[in-house]
Amino acid sequence: MKKEDIILQYLKESKDYLSGEELSRRLGISRSAIWKNINSLRESGYVIESVTNRGYRILNSSDALTPTEIQDGLSTEAFGQTVSVFAEIDSTNEEAKRQAHKGAPHGAVFVAEQQNGGKGRLGRPWQSPPKSGLWFTILLRPDAAPPQVSNLTLLAGLAVSRAIHTLTGCEAKIKWPNDIVIGSKKVCGILTEMTAEIDRVHFAVVGIGVNVNDEGFAEELKIKATSLHLETGAPVSRVTLLQQILKEFEALYLEYFVQGSSRWLQAYKESCVSLNRTVGATRGHEKIIGTAVDITDGGELVVQTGDGERIEINSGEVVVQGIYGQTPEA
């Protein structure tokens, strides 16, 4: 166990201040080394008070994104049992893919305080500011063919919406296929990528980005972005949210891939804000306007046009009437 983890354990167990001298004696290192480890813990998100002639006392650890905090009390079989946390990285999806090629296990989770190369669907850049959002990727190794694995995005969306509702009470809904919205504004985006052959998936990575404790957005984002803090009026623990998402996602993953159940799809439809609204989509060079009426077993959005034709959309940008202040246009 690292020195800072031992110090953290002592601080959590203590009902009063622990002096630098006492910590130095227990660990057999200098007080200067104790101070450096305390600062390292603070950089990880722990709030540690220091008082002259009394020592150190931990005030809050609920928002410290560390493997120790994430795994403490985590009730999953595989999801999150291996955790890597980075202060800054290009992209948690890219790191997950790098580690997948090196043999990282199913359910491994990669978390970053800040991403400098994050991306959303269609290659768009994804802003990942530090200390406010939850940016992470889950590495999955499903024993399934690519068409079945395409539903991972929908499963993840349902897991996130359930986790947010459980933790905050907010009515988080799903904008097909990969956005979570509260009201008409986006609070979370999901990006699923896979490495596969025609009949076999080697691995998939599901990247999830949640606006958790942002207290405001740039002018151009205000109309379409929100955060859990803005919606609830109070800070939300990123660690607790991550644990709840992992719990919900693993349960849905087992239901779909192991038990072979399709019950999740009805729950997804009930949470999908895209259904029964006017939507606009582009398929190839063709623009489609109609009403979203269903979602297939394969995860495609079924759009019924004005002349009664039912068209299945499996990719591309879909504009939903009233969401993000948008209006479908022919």
Provide the CATH top-level class of the largest domain.
Answer: Alpha Beta
**How many distinct beta strands?**
14
Give the second-level CATH assignment, the architecture of the largest domain.
2-Layer Sandwich
What Rg do the Cα atoms give?
A: 22 Å
Measure the end-to-end span: 61 Å
Strand content: 25-35%
- Strand sequence of the main sheet, in spatial order? 3-4-5-9-8-7-6
Note the main attributes of this structure:
330 residues, alpha+beta, Arc Repressor Mutant, subunit A, BirA Bifunctional Protein, domain 2, SH3 type barrels, 3 domains, seven-stranded mixed beta sheet, 14 strands
What's the layout of helices and strands?
Elements: H1 3-13, H2 20-27, H3 31-43, E1 47-51, E2 55-60, H4 67-71, E3 83-86, H5 92-101, E4 109-112, E5 133-140, H6 146-149, H7 152-168, E6 172-175, E7 179-182, E8 185-196, E9 201-211, H8 228-232, H9 238-258, H10 263-271, E10 278-283, E11 286-295, E12 301-305, E13 310-313, E14 318-320
Parallel strand pairs: 3-4
Antiparallel strand pairs: 1-2, 4-5, 5-9, 6-7, 7-8, 8-9, 10-11, 10-14, 11-12, 12-13
Helix pairs in contact: 1-3, 2-3, 7-9, 7-10
